[in-house]
């Protein structure tokens, strides 16, 4: 440990290099967790933006007055996005019922329930996809401050041991040692704060997207039921 402190003694690199090996491991783990959370954050930013743009375009097509069959056909046999998949699943049930013939109100009710279940399954699957990665953000947001605090406590204990061994309690000796320990808490907060903010934002975005799917499913179910009632 240096006999005197200098401005260079408080640089991030110097604090890391002079820290105890346990504190170094804590900081490396927190830095990796922060990088992982930022990867999730960037992925979610682009993904939610793409999902909403695709939903906007498809809702415009559905609301253009064209037949649902034409819109579903243009989406292809294996569409990438949720709304066309939901439309195709509902129309599949409708075509099967149309082939078999729907002649009573009871059959209409059973078909409506079957369509609702199919759409609910699609919504649950797409909502789960939208929420992928949010669990890791929650872990980083909640655990990082405590992990950083552990590194700080360990670093302070090690610093006091070193100071006692050196028999020098001057501020120029104590300050860098304490700063090395506190740096672990700072790294923990640097990892936790963006993850916490992003988790709350993307949880809200995922809920809004799920609500959008549910609204589309309700409108679609209503349109199918209207067709069925006209045939009975």
TrEMBL record:
This is Protein TolQ. Belongs to the exbB/tolQ family. Residues 107-214 form the MotA/TolQ/ExbB proton channel domain. The chain crosses the membrane at residues 21-42, 134-157, 177-199. NCBIfam families: tolQ (TIGR02796). It comes from Caulobacter zeae. Keywords: Cell cycle, Cell division, Cell inner membrane, Cell membrane, Membrane, Protein transport, Transmembrane, Transmembrane helix, Transport. Its main location: membrane. Pfam families: MotA_ExbB. It is a multi-pass membrane protein. The keyword Cell membrane applies. GO terms for biological process: bacteriocin transport; cell division; protein import. It is found in: Cell membrane; Membrane. Coiled coil: none annotated. One of its GO terms (cellular component) is plasma membrane. The keyword ATP-binding does not apply.
């Amino acid at each position: 440990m240096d006999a005197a402190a200098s401005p260079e003694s408080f640089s991030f690199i110097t604090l890391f290099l002079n820290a105890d090996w346990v504190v170094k491991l804590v900081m490396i783990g927190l830095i990796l967790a922060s990088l992982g959370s930022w990867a999730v954050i960037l992925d979610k930013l682009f993904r939610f933006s793409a999902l909403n743009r695709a939903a906007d375009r498809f809702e415009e097509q559905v609301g253009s007055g064209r037949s649902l069959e034409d819109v579903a056909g243009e989406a292809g046999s294996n569409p990438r996005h949720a709304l066309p998949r939901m439309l195709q699943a509902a129309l599949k049930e409708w075509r099967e019922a149309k082939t078999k013939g729907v002649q009573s109100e009871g059959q209409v009710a059973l078909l409506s329930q079957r369509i609702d279940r199919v759409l609910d399954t699609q919504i649950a699957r797409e909502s789960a996809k939208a929420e992928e990665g949010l669990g890791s953000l929650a872990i980083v947001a909640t655990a990082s401050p405590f992990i950083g605090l552990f590194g700080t406590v360990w670093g302070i204990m090690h610093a006091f041991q070193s100071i006692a061994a050196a028999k020098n309690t001057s501020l120029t000796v104590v300050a860098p040692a304490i700063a090395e320990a506190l740096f672990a808490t700072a790294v923990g907060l640097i990892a936790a704060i963006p993850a916490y903010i992003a988790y709350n934002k993307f949880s809200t975005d995922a809920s809004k997207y799920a609500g959008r799917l549910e609204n589309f499913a309700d409108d679609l179910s209503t349109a199918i039921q209207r067709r069925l009632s006209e045939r009975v």
